Amino acid sequence: MPSLTDSVRYLKGVGEKRAKLYQKLGVDTIYSLLHFFPRTYLDYSDAKMIEDCALGEFCCVKATVFKKQGEQYIRKGLSIFKVFVTDGTTDMLITIYNSKYLFDKLQVGQTYCFYGKLQGNLLRREMNTPSFINLQTDCPVKAIYHLTDGLSNNLISLNVSKALELWGDRLDDVLSPDIKQTEQLCHIRYAFENIHFPKDMQALEVAKKRLIFEELFSLQLGLLLLKKKNRKSTGVTIQNTALDEFLKQLPFILTDAQLCAIKDGLQDFTKQVPMNRLLQGDVGSGKTVVACALAYCMANNHYQTAIMAPTEILAVQHYHTFCKILEPMGIQCALLTGSMTAKQKNIMKQKIAQGEYQIVIGTHALIQDSVTFFCLGLVITDEQHRFGVNQRAKLAQKGTNPHKLVMSATPIPRTLAFIIYGDLDVSIIDQPPKGRLPIKTYLITGSKRLRAYHFIKEHIQKGFQAYIVCPLIDEQDQKQQAHSVYQYAKTLENTELKDVRVGILHGKMKPTEKEEVMLQFQNQQLDLLISTTVIEVGVDVPNAVLMMIENAELFGLSQLHQLRGRVGRGTVQSHCILVSDHKAEQTIERLKIMTQSSDGFYISEQDLKHRGPGDFFGERQHGLPDLKIANMVDDMQILLRTQQLAKEILQRDADLSLPEHQGLKQLTQQLFQQMSADN
Ligand code: ADP
Ligand code: MG
User: How many beta carbons lie within 10 A of that of residue 165, not counting itself?
Assistant: First the structure.
């Protein structure tokens, strides 16, 4: 008998060819086949009348067989069977390809529920090889799997049932009887049987709950173990945390929230374990100056600070900000970016290694092996969601357990924050600097575009600047119907914006070109910047008070909020115009949220509701394991509960070494396997 960790090909009815197909679905072992959870379920008890179903849609209908027509041989390898059914009002032709077995199962006079795509025309309804059940004898809930060519739903069901038959009794139950009892969770066997072959909807819920719990439980255990592992003691313990001179140097008074965040950091500096802190604050909330204060403190204590920004534009901007504040106090700042010549970089690197610079600001260029520090005390990553866990770690490895601060302007829903940042402490800046007016936001359709141009023109005539954001760069990448920056700039030549000074900015430009444009915009040599989302992060031009975003429907709310944050940075009323011709009610409703709120945290919660957590996690950048069954939004209650339980367990058994925790430990390791492979 094959073991759980053997390839599915050894399972009776699979074989080599199908095993290859299974690979496409991410299934390799028998174990992973059992964990290949259905995509959704078909509730046959929810059948409709044929005439109520739309042509071309998948639907479930209840009908009785009244005639069968034997095998018709079409050509080699293709024969068809015809079955005629009726629901009393409408008839339907069912065609079955190549399966005498299914054909024989359908008997004249019996009533079945059929699920499939309704085809044909108004006069004749058809379904091709639908899945079906006999309502008298079969269970009314059917699992629907992700499919690939060559693996049908029925076949997968069959294979899974074989695996269950062999292994059902032998599955390890990693949850102790205690936990199962207090949390009211079913046995593992029951869970697997009913997740694949639910007895009814209720049994399915019970099974789901158990498997979700198990998955989130191991996720939480893994995160907590990770957090512990990362907390080695630091060589950087600071005595002098005085800031008076720094505060005097600032052109403004810090908000209470900013002061709190700085205090959090300074306190961490005095401890034996390195700071590992997330600074979260809406765009424009003033995170940079917090970073600057902490870097100042490090410099005062003869430690270097490295600051990594995701784009060159941002790095340069930070460089200027830091220089302006710190250089008058005799603190030297360096800039290191990819667009510098090799020679420039080498000179810079040498000086950094010798400790001539106390502050080093740069892009990814900072994590190159050739960059070494004299005495690195603090590592700051700005807009951290743009970096992977590994990139951050790499920078920190350049010191001996330096303190770490990551800054994020993407307000993560609080509920998600502790998962994504499971191993971080969090400071939040939840108030904007004094005197900021909330940005006024409007949602318009393309028919009002000319009026918007007029509005922009008026502002430009008063000496202000504006952004127009388009999703695409040029027509060539126009896979979807959406505006592109180049096309847009051309179109403007026929409008009243034709004589304003227009700049173009997008991600395919060379860093030096981008910088040039951004500088011109900053220096008010340009009135209007037509751009893709490259301006998304951090760029600070207080004189820009208008932003128009084309094809707003293509962006997530959090992203729109980020973009919008480019304006509203001065003391003048700013405006944001979202343009969308999208008709779908859902889209409009989603976009309307932008016009109603300027609270980044609220908006991110809404985004989470509408688009799921994918946007927050980014393309697996987070380095967290993929969840197979649990869902961060729907299963929040279980998530919170498992976090608490995980803490309790680790208090008793810090590294899961007790015999009764071996199953859990293994599961946790499995879940995090991918992750440790990445690191
Ligand atoms: P973000 O949090 O988005 O990184 P920044 O740090 O870029 O925001 O700050 C946005 C702008 O607000 C900058 O021009 C900065 O100089 C200014 N600023 C920051 N803190 C204050 C404050 N306490 N009072 C007035 N202006 C401030
Ligand atoms: Mg910033």
Answer: 10
* Residues in contact with 109: Cβ distance below 8 Å, sequence separation at least 6, in sequence order: 64, 65, 66
CA of 570 to the centre of ligand 1 (A): 10
CA of 475 to the centre of ligand 2 (A): 31
Torsion sign (Cα): 651, 652, 658, 662: negative
> What band does 263 get if pLDDT is binned at 50, 70 and 90?
very high
Gap between the Cα atoms of 403 and 234, Å rounded: 8
Q: Looking at 88-97, 235-244, 315-324, 325-334, which range is the least confident one?
A: 235-244
Distance CA 202, CA 298 (A): 59
What residues pair up with 151 in beta bridges, in sequence order? 148
Q: Which of 156, 160, 106, 100 is nearest to 135 (CA)?
A: 106
Give the pLDDT score at 601: 80
524: left (phi over 0), alpha (psi -120 to 50) or beta: left
Structure tokens at 589: 């409703």
252 within ligand 1 shell (Cβ under 6 A): yes
| Residue 115 phi, psi dihedral angles, 5° rounding | -125, 125
Indicate whether 666 pLDDT > 90.
Answer: no
Q: Which residue has the higher pLDDT, 512 or 161?
A: 161
> Do the Cβ atoms of 119 and 55 come closer than 8 Å?
yes
Rounded to whole angstroms, how far apart are CA atoms 599 and 282? 8
How far is Cα 328 from Cα 249, in angstroms, rounded to an integer? 8
> What are the angstrom distances between the C-alpha of 44 and each of 142, 242, 568?
8, 70, 54
Burial class (CB in 10 A: 0-12, 13-18, 19+), 651: exposed
| Residue that has been written with the tokens 């040039």 in this structure | 516
Rounded alpha-carbon distances, angstroms, from residue 89 to 46, 112, 114, 123, 399: 18, 15, 16, 12, 77
CA-based diameter of the chain, in Å? Answer: 94
Distance of CA 453 to the CA centre of its chain: 34
Closest residue CA from atom 10 of ligand 1: 284
Q: What is the mean pLDDT of residues 376-384?
A: 88
Kindly state the tokens that stand for 72: 């018709």
Between residues 435 and 344, the one the model is more confident about: 344
Closest ligand to C-alpha of residue 522 is 1
Amino acid (one-letter) located at 204: L
SS3 (DSSP) at 601: helix
44 by Cβ neighbours in 10 Å (0-12 / 13-18 / 19+) ranks as buried
The H-assigned helical ranges of 69-171 are 100-105, 153-167
Which H helix or E strand runs over 61? strand 58-75
Question: Which residue is closest in CA terms to ligand 1's atom 13?
Answer: 286
Q: Are residues 307 and 435 in contact, defined by beta-carbon separation less than 8 angstroms?
A: no
Query: 411: Cβ below 6 Å to ligand 1?
Result: no
Confidence check: pLDDT of 536 > 80: no
What are the contacts of 126-132 at 24+ separation with CB within 8 A?
126/92, 126/93, 126/94, 126/95, 127/92, 127/93, 127/94, 127/95, 128/94, 128/95, 128/96, 128/97, 129/95, 129/96, 129/97, 129/99, 129/102, 130/94, 131/42, 132/106
The closest alpha carbon to 456, from 473, 468, 469, 444, belongs to 468
Counted residue by residue, the chain has a size of 679
* Top mutation candidate among 246, 252, 436, 536 for ligand 1, by most atoms within 8 Å of CB: 252
Dihedral over alpha carbons 211, 212, 214, 215 (to 10 degrees): 120
